[in-house]
Amino acid sequence: MTLKIDNIDQRIIEILKTDAKSPNREIAKKTKLPVTTVFNRIRRLEKNGVIRGYSAVLDYKKLGLKLTAYSLLHYNISIWGKETSRAELKRQLMALPNIEEVKYIIGQYDILLKFRVRDMDDFNDILLNKLRGIPGIGQTETFIVLEDVV
């Protein structure tokens, strides 16, 4: 069952997307609602899984992770259930250093990975020495991010 989200819920969500640390009092002021109403709506959104959590927005360059790359992977799906199950593949991919996202996709490729690394040497090590060691991983195509726009 889909939870009914009205314009007020949508406005609260937009405020939290901009700043997840916004106090209920500030959200109440922006939405012209009582603080208790804001509190109850946020709790309902959390309870129903619309809001699954809150996270920090990091400055990866300050953490020394200056290079962002996306890699598309071909995966030999016929080995699922033989040498490597889908759950095991996911575990192996998430165990790679500096992997931020893993997506199973439809199209010319099977998997999309997002990396954040210090430099090309780190990226090459992950791609050539670690990723290619996973059974079933085939051809890859990589895109290097020049600039984060949003």
CATH level-1 class of the largest domain: Alpha Beta
Content of β-strand: 15-25%
Q: Portion of residues in helices?
A: 25-40%
Specify the number of helices. 5
The count of β-strands is 4
| CATH topology name of the largest domain | Alpha-Beta Plaits
| CA gyration radius, whole angstroms | 20 Å
- Using the alpha-carbon principal axes, give the shape: elongated
Identify the CATH architecture of the largest domain. 2-Layer Sandwich
Structural class: alpha+beta
What order do the SSEs take from the amino end to the carboxyl end, as H and E?
HHHEHEEHE
> Which blocks of ≥5 consecutive residues have pLDDT under 50?
none
Number of domains: 2
- Quaternary state reads single chain
Main sheet characteristics: 4 strands, antiparallel
The strands making up the biggest β-sheet line up spatially as 2-3-1-4
N-to-C terminal Cα separation, in Å?
A: 32 Å
CATH superfamily of the largest domain: Lrp/AsnC effector binding domain/regulation of amino acid metabolism (RAM) domain
The overall pLDDT average reads 91
